[in-house]
Amino acid sequence: MSNGHTNGYTGPHAHGHTNGHTNGHTVHSTNGHAHGLSSHLEPVSKDEMHDLLCVGFGPASLAIAVALHDAIDSGEQLNTRRPKVAFLERQDKFAWHSGMQIPGAKMQISFVKDLATLRNPRSEFTFLNYLFQVGRLVQFTNLGTFLPRRIEYEDYMRWCSKHFDDVVSYGEEVIAVDPIKTAGSSKKTAGFAITSRNILTREVSTRRARHVVIAAGGRPKIPDGLPQDHPRVLHSSQYKVQTPKIFPDSTKPIRVAVIGGGQSAAEIFNDVHQHFPNSTSYLLIKDTALRPSDDSPFVNEIFDPDRVNRIYTTTPERRAEMIAADKVTNYGVVRLELLEDIYEEMYTQRLTHGNDESLWPRHILTQRRVTSVTDKAGALDLTITNTSNATNPSTEHLTVDLVYVAAGYQRNAHELMLQNCRHLMPGGDEQGKKWTVGRNYAVEFDGAKIENEAGVWLQGCNEMTHGLSDTLLSILSVRGGEMVQSIFGAEVPAQNKANGVH
């Protein structure tokens, strides 16, 4: 992760401030939420047909909730006067990559790219209004920065999320999204049955909705060849959560290997020695060196909202070229400030320990590929291919106590959820056929098999059609508004929704 566009990190529990912020609404506490924050979205019985049900309540769904609240608040004409909306979230509370909330880490995007400002700077859900409500606006201004700390931005998002507690069911893991047919002669799909399982009780329940948004987020990816479920071979997303559990004694002289050359890997490598001052750490990267991300103004336009149109409307061949070129801003690169900090630390250990690298507590091993990890006498043995000699690669071994893999995420949760909807695909279900979406993120179904007023939308898994910003924070506010218009906009013909026509 780099260029500041991926930051979604969870920190300590938010304070749930209640300063004002009812905006003239009746404050309700339907599900026992006494936090004093409310929105225009009202809870409905799980037995009712919902107008919209969102699978997942991370930043993408939160942005939709905020945009829908704002649309109602402004008196915008919607095709449903008071939408019946619900959100299902697997986690037991709102959390935003809690395992990567590293102390002192800052955001990599401007706070102006919050959940509302670029769509409606007068929204009560802007980051600046959050600061005003919690009493820190003047002090934040004195910092002279557009980049708040992640812990504060997470607190902002959690504060926003608490306005919608009455319409969110936490601890619910969605198992399937199945079609519901009409009772008439057409037998078309008129909506969807969303089956979920309670994480604690294991109770299974079903809700119905005409429109479903799947924003389930990414699943941590461990490359093939490495242990997929080893208790001490972990994904980078588990760093701050699992490390203290595995090694509660921070004075213990442990050995840690971090695999990866991007922002997450560099952040973990930089933090290990802070948390475990007597540790020995290794950063293993495939490249010849750590590379800086490019967040210069012209390059940053890659993440502008209108860039999505340019990406989507071009030819598949040209689109692939553009996305491949854009990836160097966000994958396998590190923010320059962090690179400079790491280099200074590496220089300091040369100063204090001398030039004998065997005495150093930190090591960056370039041109290394980890091919396997095996248990060895209570430790972990890494088999590594050293590619520094391209014509004659060598094999090395490294013994450590803990391994973190920063290999990104898989974003295909919708494939399993929609398994029983595959017959609705245009042209029918074919082996290996992938779901496609329109510009408005609506899944493309066979129009002869589904009613106009029914549809599924995908969020966060459309990078190859909508560009790099699809999985990031940069366009959330604008995209949330687009989603509300696509689903509830009175001026959007229903027939066009599933086809992505504006």
Report on this model:
With 502 residues, the chain is of the alpha/beta class. Among the domains are: 49-101 and 165-218 and 411-497, 3-Layer(bba) Sandwich (FAD/NAD(P)-binding domain), CATH 3.50.50.60; 220-293 and 332-408, FAD/NAD(P)-binding domain. It is 26% helix and 20% strand. It contains 14 helices and 17 strands. The strands form four sheets. Strands 1, 2, 3, 4, 5, 6 and 17 form a seven-stranded mixed β-sheet that branches. Strand 1 (49-55), helix 1 and strand 2 (85-89) form a beta-alpha-beta unit. Helix 1 crosses helix 13 (476-488). The longest helix has 18 residues, at 336-353.
The 3D shape can be described as globular
What fold name stands as the CATH topology of the domain at 49-101 and 165-218 and 411-497?
FAD/NAD(P)-binding domain
Helix content: 25-40%
CATH class of the domain at 49-101 and 165-218 and 411-497: Alpha Beta
Helix/strand-derived category reads alpha/beta
Give the terminus-to-terminus CA distance: 32 Å
- Count all strands and give the number: 17
Could you name the ranges where pLDDT drops below 50 across 5 or more consecutive residues? 1-35, 492-502
In this structure, how is the largest beta sheet organized? 7 strands, mixed
| Radius of gyration computed on alpha carbons | 24 Å
Averaged pLDDT, please?
88
CATH superfamily of the domain at 49-101 and 165-218 and 411-497: FAD/NAD(P)-binding domain
For the record, the CATH architecture of the domain at 49-101 and 165-218 and 411-497 stands as 3-Layer(bba) Sandwich
Number of H/I helices: 14
Strand percent estimate: 15-25%
